[in-house]
Design a protein that fits this description.
Two copies of one chain form a homodimer.
Chain A (H helix, E strand, L loop, with lengths): L2 H23 L11 H17 L3 E5 L6 E6 L5 E7 L19 E3 L6 E3 L7 H18 L5 E7 L9 H7 L1 H4 L3 E4 L11 E6 L1 E10 L5 E2 L10 H10 L22 H8 L5 H6 L14 H6 L3 E10 L8 E2 L2 E10 L5 H14 L6 E4 L5 E2 L2 E2 L5 H14 L4 E5 L4 H10 L3 E4 L14 E3 H19 L2
Parallel strand pairs in A: 3-6, 3-7, 7-18, 8-17
Antiparallel strand pairs in A: 1-2, 2-6, 4-5, 5-19, 8-16, 8-18, 9-13, 9-14, 9-15, 10-12, 11-13
Chain lengths: 459, 459
């Protein structure tokens, strides 16, 4: 059976594939907010049914949080574990969406049609590229090309609290030769990319407490400690004037990018101007002396993701609030240790508190170190060839600014290397209002997986 | 008729007076939020009916905002204009209230019983001290002691947008010999106080805009400008390390307190330790080199009243938000000009913006300069004697950290001096959850007004 028949079937089936994706997108499976837990169940059920429809022995597996979906097909040939996540980010601020985030539609844009809706790119659309490739194989050949374990989680956007225990309890069942992950972007539009290194992540959250109660800014303005001023002053000390994180010991384990890798990256097709201009920037704003690409892929960050306190309503309120709150994440590189970074950060804040101020920390937030992929394995070169064939452009090994903690757990718990191939674009607005996935990414993504599976099996 | 009969009637009537106050407190007349405008109408109607019940010719007067209540009684003798406001602050954060803010109850506390509820102290409870004193006079003597114009507004907590036009259009009707205002505190529990100077206020609000859309902190963390970091950095420049406002030209028009006045203040019964400790502070946090009292009464401030941006929900969201917001107020002293302060502040922010960041300002927020009362008028000494008699303790002329802009407008538009007498306490939690008014403040406040009116009439 030639791959061409499968690719041709994929082309014919695209309208139906889009309809199936829309069905999945209509389920508001926001994992971080307990109000949506029934919808996470519903998305898992939908996937179980869909996998069964192509002959996969699939089941929903309960956890203390949202369920996992596990499916098995075949018992011979190369064995891949395919990972994706069915949960999505919250949609706030809802008023900035131009359409219902959970009523996906196809929209024309200057760069071609897109599927608009929460999860279209991260990660339901990407996940379904693989499932649709399998469906095409099944339709045309009556079987799948190799032995496949499907593994979908529903807590990726909320720190994956059930992932490690589940992997540990089901390690024998989940073991394979290599893991495939579809949750990453292309370096630039049209440049097929395999992610070769990922940043890690550390999440934390703190509250600055000042007065015992909210105060009137007339009665206490002046003598009163204002937690909003206090938190601003402390956050302002997180970076120096060159954009470098000013927390002591923060950079322990950070290495400069080797010259040879830097040269490869400079030729990987990344378009700094488009990357910056597309979101309204004229220059990179990270550490001085590094390109936007290196700032994104190979330098650590300390970002404030949420900051609040006092009155946010209409009009004015003359209040000195009792508390101020900050959510933050650090992206980690090299050998940075999440626990050490957390300790350094907390010490930094505690050392800078004014008298009468105190800080409390949210203790439930996780961390994971950076990852570097094992690109010397033969599967990487086979996949690179398959992607180059599909996109008619040399595929590249690229860094990545995001964090996919699951790859680290696959290594540590299952002893599995991961290969990350994704078709998202920088302007997909993942985690933002008006998330989209290019129809081209979806269509050629499906074709790409068909070719990759073919090459992994028939090398 | 001796004052004693009136005071005795007040004592007998206290349970009924409390019931009437509770009725008024049950009306959620939050002026800053348009959702409550019908309740502002309802509070105004309640007051019109209550004034009519004691023989005052009262009416509700519509404005483009919330209505005024105006009432007249008598045509001879000294003529006072009594001012109060029936609107209240918002109640957020609602979850910090121990009871429904609009279901007032009497609670026992170590310092005696209190009336708990929004507006109990600011200003419905205080306003009703004067009305109840009038009611007692009417019951016992069949008339009121002097000529009185009652003037209640419903926009004091939202910048009084209708006040100036209303005063200008009705100046002839509202003119009197002196204005009485009951919206202030006692220097310390049990120390009757006439406020002799007030701080002014300038309100402003700004938004820092960074990227065109919310960004993913993996894709753009590093190269992306984060408005939450930007706003924190800028707010941190508002003060220097000695607690002084670091905005150029901010202190234009600020004068040091004259030595003689400072000496009076030092002996006025203000208890710095109680003032600070009662809300959780061990030391004053304003400008170095000034006592808490001077920081509160005679030094200007720049306070952040609201700060927000990014994700505030449960869990984590790896977002770099497009915007960050800040609400602020400055308390003004001496000859500080609100327009000049606003211009200086805006320039300060604009001069410090990073490339690719921009700022927008809310243009609807007002300002008013500081006020000094004309305490050489004979009415002040008569009131001081009346208060000293009631509280069995020498009454004092005190400064005040808050702002009562209406006194400035009475001077400018009606040519009226104001006398500010109030019975609130520092721990009343006005503008905060669990606002209260001591029953003693209410009871002795009513008796105090009866004595003051008696002294103003029969001197």
């Amino acid at each position: 059976m030639s791959i061409d028949a499968i690719l041709s079937h994929i082309d014919d089936e695209i309208p139906n594939a889009i309809d199936r994706l829309k069905e999945l997108l209509r389920i508001p499976s926001i994992s971080t907010d307990p109000a949506y837990s029934q919808h996470c169940q519903q998305a898992a059920d939908w996937l179980v049914n869909d996998l069964r429809s192509i002959g996969v022995e699939a089941s929903k597996r309960e956890t203390p949080g949202h369920p996992m979906v596990v499916g098995h097909f075949g018992d011979s040939g190369p064995h891949v574990l395919f990972y994706g996540h069915y949960d999505v980010q919250p949609v706030d601020p809802l008023e900035l969406w131009n359409s219902d985030p959970f009523d996906p539609q196809i929209e024309g844009t200057p760069n071609g049609p897109v599927i608009r809706g929460r999860g279209s790119s991260d990660d339901k659309g990407q996940l379904m590229t693989f499932v649709e490739a399998c469906r095409a194989y099944k339709s045309v050949t009556g079987t799948l090309p190799c032995r496949i374990t499907f593994f979908f989680e529903g807590e990726e956007e909320s720190g994956s609290p059930s992932l490690i225990p589940f992997l540990e309890e089901n390690a024998d069942e989940l073991k394979a030769d290599i893991a495939l992950v579809c949750d990453t972007s292309m370096v630039s539009p049209g440049v097929p990319s395999i992610s070769s290194q990922l940043r890690g992540m550390l999440k934390d959250e703190f509250t600055i407490h000042g007065p015992r109660i909210d105060l009137h800014s007339g009665h206490y303005g002046g003598p009163g400690l204002n937690p909003l001023k206090e938190i601003s002053r402390i956050i302002a000390t997180f970076h120096d004037e060159k954009g470098r994180v000013a927390v002591e010991n923060f950079y322990d384990g950070v290495h400069e990018v080797p010259a040879e890798l830097l040269r490869q990256w400079e030729n990987c097709g990344f378009d700094e101007e488009t990357y910056l201009n597309s979101v309204g920037f004229t220059q990179p704003h990270g550490e001085e002396g590094y390109s936007a690409l290196v700032q994104q892929w190979a330098r650590p960050t300390l970002e404030i993701n949420g900051l609040w306190g006092g009155y946010q309503g209409i009009g004015s309120k003359t209040v000195i609030p009792a508390e101020a709150h900050c959510k933050l994440t650090c992206r980690l590189v090299g050998d940075m240790d999440p626990d050490n970074v957390r300790a350094a950060l907390r010490k930094h804040v505690e050392d800078r508190l004014s008298p009468d101020a105190r800080v409390t920390w949210d203790s439930d937030l996780d961390g994971s170190p950076a990852s570097v992929m094992n690109i010397d394995r033969p599967e990487f070169e086979r996949a690179r060839q398959a992607l180059s064939d599909e996109w008619n452009r040399e595929a590249v090994f690229a860094g990545m600014g995001g964090s996919i903690p699951v790859t680290r757990f696959f290594t540590d718990i299952l002893g599995l290397d991961s290969m990350l191939i994704g078709f998202a674009q920088d302007d997909d607005a993942i985690h933002s209002p008006n998330e989209k996935y290019n129809v081209e990414s979806f269509h050629k993504g499906i074709r790409s997986w068909a070719r990759v599976m073919d090459k992994l099996t028939n090398y």
